[in-house]
Amino acid sequence: MTTELPQQNKGYISIQQITETVKAASGWVAPLRNELSRTIIGQDNLIDSLLIGLLSGGHILLEGLPGLAKTLAVKSLSEAIRTDFRRIQFTPDMLPADIIGTQIYNPQETTFETRRGPIFASLVLADEINRAPAKVQSALLEAMQEKQVTIGEESYLLPKLFLVLATQNPIEQEGTYPLPEAQVDRFMLKVVVGYPSRAEERKILDNYEYSSKEKKIVPVASPEEILNARRVADSIYMDDKIKDYIVSLVYATRDPESCHLSLSNYIETGASPRATLSMKSVAKCAAFLAGRGYVTPDDVKSSAMNVMRHRIRISYEAEAEGISSEDIIRKIVDTVPVP
To answer: What letters, b where the CB count within 10 A reaches 16 and e where it falls short, cover 148-180?
Structure first.
């Protein structure tokens, strides 16, 4: 059921009205989270990040060791929202046509026919994305940014609900390629997937005994509900002080001295303007998931790590001293004044 934004005669919408609209449009959130939690145990951060990706339309880079349910989470998500799903296993011998498709000559008609690749799906899992060379990564750039694919002389629009979720192993180096900066910057979030706790792993062990028989994903949401929720989330109120706070956090990665931080020797390049836009979008989605019609500073702080950890390039000096981009972000978040 589509929930229209409330309108007043003077064109003014109160925060209370927005909150009511958010609650009406977010009825699918709790069932979807519960359904994913039945299969994905001990990865609440991963589930929340997938929900934010759905709401914002932003692509997600999942980094973690094998066996941490990254692929299972994406597949379960597609089943729970009743949409099409394609999995692409990236390998060193791939070609761009293996992703976007190509033109094939038809001798009977003496014409070329377009064969669309697996990128033409709502949810696309790019498994082990760092195993493919740069020429294959470039095939994703147009799709991720413009939501379209060009094959030959024609451009084809991708589904309205289009999301790329990529996985990579952080420790395996043989047969892998570093992702180009332009590719990394197009991921709205980089989520680090860690090990479950001892109690959660015991629960995984207990569930595994009957998972093949009973643990089937039940569809609880539709693409139409999610697209409507995106419009509602975009209407969530953000105060000018919150916007200034977002700009201050991102700007501190480029000019740390402006915030009285001595981090210049550790940062080679700071976060791009895409980080500013992404943090605004993710903060609004966090407010939506919390059932609020307004953004708080905590919504911004909670999004800073996933939005900026892959957009800051650290220097050799930082690597030598064991300082990561996450350490720099924590320092910035702790130092920049909160409105």
So the answer is: ebebeeeeeebeebbbbbbbbeeeeeeebeebe
